[in-house]
Amino acid sequence: MMFLVAIIAIVVTMLLILVRALLGPTVYDRILAINLFGTKTVLFVAVLGFLNGRPEFLDLGLIYALINFIGTVTVLKFMQYGDLGWEAASKEKPDV
User: Is residue 96 part of a domain?
Assistant: First the structure.
């Protein structure tokens, strides 16, 4: 019963986070909301795996957490510098 309530609470917060992502006043608020949605997804997968007695869902949750982190850092780097750094690296190497 307690885990069912936890799943419902997680789903409700995920819906509120999606509203924040769609209506956020700034781009950084929207990026933060998407990152938080990914974190709640990991929590949802963990609780769902515990409910079903399938601990291997935790492995999927951890992989998703890593992908979420790398994606968030990539988007923030793109927002800060306007590119992902590939052009700066190619300017340092002379073409032969």
Answer: no
Could you give the CA distance from residue 17 to residue 49 in angstroms, rounded to a whole number? 22
First CA to last CA distance, the chain: 67
Nearest residue to 45 (alpha-carbon basis) of 11, 76, 72:
11
Domain boundaries, position 11: 2-91
Token representation of residue 32: 């933060």
* Of residues 76, 66, 12, 6, the one with CA closest to residue 42: 66
CA distance 2 to 46: 14
Domain presence at residue 87? yes
CA–CA gap between residue 70 and residue 64 (Å, rounded): 10
The per-residue pLDDT for range 50-64, each reduced to its tens digit, is: 888 988 888 998 999
Average pLDDT over residues 15-38: 90
